[in-house]
Amino acid sequence: MLAGDLKREFSDMQGFSRANIFNIRQWYLFYSIMGEKVQQLVRQLPWGHNMVIVNKIKEPVEVIFYLTETIKNNWSRNILIHQIESGLYSRRGKILHNFEATLPAPQSDLARQTLKDPYIFDFLSLGEEAQEREIEKELTKHITKFLLELGAGFSFVGSQYPFEVSGKDYYIDLLFYHLKLRCYIIIELKAGEFKPEYAGKLNFYLSAVDKILKHEDDKPSIGIILCKSKDRIIAEYALKDMSKPIGVSEYKIVHSIPEKLKTSLPTIDELEKELSKPDGDKKPKSIKKNRWD
What we know:
By secondary structure, the chain is α/β, with parallel strands linked by helices. The chain has 2 domains: 2-85, no CATH class; 96-252, Trna Endonuclease, Chain: A, domain 1 (3-Layer(aba) Sandwich). It has 15 helices and 7 strands. The chain has helices at 2-9, 18-32, 36-42, 47-56, 60-73, 77-85, 88-91, 99-102, 105-114, 132-141, 143-150, 196-212, 232-240, 259-264, 268-275, and strands spanning 96-97, 119-120, 154-165, 168-178, 183-193, 222-229, 246-252. The chain is globular and about 75 Å long. It starts with a helix and ends in an 18-residue tail after the last helix.
């Protein structure tokens, strides 16, 4: 057996278990056909990160994406797993927008690649019918996880951020500054379906932020309408003639299994053992026999 031979030959070294030998072979076969570019990226990541990618990703272009993003953002293995399981690759750059018409070429492309659709809020303890202010409060309560979902570069400025125009008070749902885009980003939350009038209101907010907050070295501010659902054609028409850069994206409130419940669920081995019993032996552990049984 190879594992045993290696242990005897290199007795002062660890990591030659049967499972690990299999992983090494799988890792080699997976990356050996990917080309030199991928292999250079692989060398920059720990073994555990590479095995996550080997086990969860098959397409080379997707492999390159997660390798590059992990290195660039210094993701831990758990964050890498979260990003893969939330489908970051398929969501990145998919936001509906008018950036080409409202931003210069380098900035418009960077803005598109920075934003996504949909945004996944699997850390919120809210029902599907939650209103804007409830969602906003929960997002700011879990700001670290919210920033992770938004992506690298977002810096939180405030919620219900106040500003005044012509003696009247207005409030921005969520205001951020993006360090790489070098601009303010306004997020307006909508608990229902996208409506065309949302774009007009956000266009007004962006004009105000550019006038009141924007520094002369900053790039034009960007707005995101984050809604529960959208009709793509209606959203495209709404953004078509807007003068400010605006994107429309959906959010999904996805509830993961609570940790306490996870520990109480049967394991695969327990389920298989229970299913392998004869029918007469299959009795729920929590049900006691009656006296007359």
